[in-house]
Structure prediction request, 301 residues.
Amino acid sequence: MKTISITIIFALLGSAVMNAQDALPLIVTEDSLTMANTIVPGISVVIPEVEADNTIKNWIKVLESGTRSKVISEDGEMSVFGANIKDISENPVNIYSTLSETENGVYLNAAFELKKDVFIESVTGASELSKAKSFMLEFGKEQYIELTEEQLKAEENKLRDLEKEVRSLERDQSGMERTIVKSNRTIANERERLISLNNELTSITASIADEQIQLTTLEDESLRKEKEDYLKSLEKTNKKTTRAIRKSKKRLSKAERAIEKASNAIPRNDRIQSKYKDEIDAQSAVVQSYLDKLNTIKGYQ
Prediction:
């Protein structure tokens, strides 16, 4: 029986580049398993990065699938009798296993008993051994793929958040650019309006002065009354025009401030957009690395 120690296995893992974006090897090997002080032939798989709790749940689910038998756990050892693992044997098999978590991932070791005291190993037949190894590899792949898909999703969410920030900044900049265009139009209109209003005010002021002079020369009460009423209407128009000029100046000043604010904000917006776009480029590379990692793991055989 060919065996390999867990120390050697993790030394092999440790020699790989420990980077979350890189796919680490799934190591499947003939091993030995100690059950109730008895050493039996086993097959182990080292599943990088995954956590023990979730892996145990999934392992138990696989063992109990297609059978009424339940996994019995005692002192860190798991056993199931009469498991239906068609990928290994058409007949029910007993499976004994242990699972431990290390800093590099999970070490799963399982022994497959075809019949009493007859375990799958190289001496029992290459076909059964190959099937058992494939079964362990496929289980390990599923766990590693599930983890990597979660990692990929998390990185894709980061990328979407960055892209969302850029779209928001682009909308802000577009709004500021529209503000500048609109404010320039307002300034042009208000300046033209002020010219007209100031001319009108000058004319009204002159008319008031002229009418006041004329009023002093009138002695007829009815004519004076008529002149006074006319003066009141001119003064009312004068006040109205003065208010219009004041409002127009406020609109003009507001538009000028809006242009100044937008003009100062746009360069800052450009700098922030540039920073985010650099981050997007970097994050896109991270996402691609996780896609590559996922595809690498899916290709494990």
